[in-house]
Design brief:
Blueprint (H helix, E strand, L loop, with lengths): L1 H18 L43 H5 L9 E2 L10 H16 L1 H5 L2 H16 L6 E4 L2 H11 L7 E5 L4 H14 L2 E5 L10 H11 L4 E7 L11 H12 L9 E5 L11 H4 L3 E5 L11 E5 L1 H6 L11 H7 L7 H4 L8 H4 L2 H11 L1 H20 L4 E3 L11 E6 L4 H10 L2 E2 L1 E2 L7 E4 L6 H15 L1
Parallel strand pairs: 1-11, 3-4, 3-5, 5-6, 6-7
Antiparallel strand pairs: 2-8, 7-8, 9-10, 10-13, 12-13
Helix pairs in contact: 1-12, 5-15, 6-7, 8-9, 16-18
Length: 456
């Protein structure tokens, strides 16, 4: 009986420590709390099997130095690197260090889970200009959208507004959530010709479609179907106007799929005016594959009920003690269970890498290369530029129709010339290029020349 009381007391003590922020949860006994303790290393830092590059020792003002941090095949022009990231050297080194730590002592390494998750939240918050407690950790944009749309308190008769241009992940998450709640999902077109889209038209069509019953406006910052970048601030202002005079429970919230903006555009959630910002970190940010984040403003976050149990305080402690303390949005909506922690915890280095380069410089470089590419492609006979030439309405994605030819065939013929492009995964497919920090002006010119040859 005494042994049973001791075991119960130990568990509850662990729960109390957890509630206070102690980095220990559901782990076995170990001779050390963090990897590296036995050798006297700082707590929480895994023993390094390779020496990572020191960002302060790199001249990241030189774009060739930036490109040199990637292990991409130098014989290829990588205009599809945004689809799933290649890891820059600091991220690769961090993944390797964490993997080695788990292989050496998994119990000790996972004991630091809460602290290392918080380091990722802090890095993301610093980049986004928000509070760490407002950031949930996920494995992808798709997971984040599912968590948000299934966590919102939709009711029969509620109206959810989205567009025909959004990706499957948004459409399907909304369909499933609305079917369960009895809500209506409406899809509207924001433009007829993407290349001719204007900011006033884009914002105006959203504003005109908002009803008194609208509870969610679900949009994508940069459309992967066309490369159109929405004027999110103007749309957020239209949503705010529609909310004027509404009770708090009746307000519409603006949820943004930000996957093709994060790491390509320097705007932050506060600049954009959205209520919820959902993104993977493994595309334009070039973070670890299988990682993502969700940020929610306090009022919006309070309305999102967790869908997958979190293993962190207070929810886990509530289970232990019978309590009912609510969880902050960030930890409460970070799905529990063991993760690929070596990737999750290396997200910190991805944000640090972009911060060291400078988000504004990254955005300017992306825009410079995309503009060069659009200008070149727009002059080619037989090539129709789908993406707006206006830099305010596009980011790094550039989509084209090449002489009415099958986009998959064009992409294959480009690959034969060592140029890696992609096909938009939509019912109306286009050839798609992604100009980013791993491409060069010379490669942009080579891509234009190759497309010119295929269009003849």
């Amino acid at each position: 009986m005494a042994d049973a009381r001791l075991r119960r007391r130990s568990v509850l003590t662990g729960g109390a420590l957890l509630a206070a922020g102690a980095p220990a949860l559901l782990v076995g006994c170990s001779s050390s709390d963090e990897p590296g303790d036995e050798s006297g290393d700082d707590a929480g830092e895994p023993a390094a099997s390779t020496t990572p590059p020191r960002l302060e020792d790199l001249d990241l003002s030189d774009w060739e130095v930036v490109r040199g941090q990637f292990a991409l095949d130098p014989e290829l022009a990588h205009f599809a690197a945004f689809v799933l990231a290649s890891h820059p050297a600091p991220v690769r080194a961090a993944i390797e260090r964490w993997r080695d730590a788990f292989d050496a002592d998994p119990a000790a390494t996972v004991a630091g889970e809460l602290a290392h998750d918080e380091e990722v939240r802090t890095a993301a918050a610093g980049y986004l200009g928000v509070r760490p407690a407002e950031v949930a950790l996920t494995d992808s944009t798709t997971m984040g959208l599912g968590l948000v749309y299934h966590g919102l308190p939709l009711c029969p008769g509620d109206h959810v507004l989205t567009t025909t241009h959004d990706f499957y992940a948004t459409h399907e998450a909304l369909r499933l959530a609305a079917a369960r709640a009895g809500a209506e999902v409406e899809r509207i077109a924001l433009y007829d010709d993407p290349a001719a889209a204007g900011a006033d038209e884009l914002a105006g069509r959203v504003a005109a479609a908002i009803r008194p019953q609208t509870k969610v406006v679900a949009l994508t910052w940069v459309h992967s179907s066309t490369g159109v970048k929405l004027p999110v601030r103007a749309i957020a202002d239209a949503v705010a106007d529609a909310n004027a005079g509404r009770a708090e429970a009746d307000r519409a919230i603006l949820v943004l799929d930000a996957i093709h903006g994060l790491g390509a555009d320097a705007a932050r959630p506060g600049d954009l005016g959205c209520d919820v910002f959902v993104s993977g970190t493994h595309k334009w940010l070039f973070g670890p594959r299988g990682t993502g984040i969700v940020w929610a403003a306090p009022a919006a976050g309070a309305a999102v009920a967790p869908t997958i149990p979190s293993f962190t305080a207070p929810s886990f402690v509530n289970w232990l003690t019978g309590g009912d303390e609510p969880s902050p949005f960030g930890v409460g909506n970070t799905p529990g269970g063991y993760q690929a922690f070596e990737h999750r915890w290396a997200v910190t280095e991805a944000f640090a890498f972009h911060q060291a380069i400078g988000p504004d410089r990254v955005a300017a470089r992306t825009q410079e290369l995309a503009t060069r590419l659009k200008d070149g492609l727009a002059e080619l006979p037989g090539v129709r530029l789908v993406t707006p030439r206006d830099p305010a309405l596009s980011a790094g994605l550039v989509c084209v129709d090449v002489a009415g030819r099958d986009p998959a065939e064009v992409v294959q013929q480009l690959l034969d010339q060592r140029i890696v492009a992609s096909v938009t995964p939509y019912s109306e497919p286009y050839v798609r290029f992604g100009a980013s920090i791993v491409t060069t002006p010379e490669q942009v010119d080579a891509a234009v020349e190759a497309v010119a040859g295929l269009a003849r």
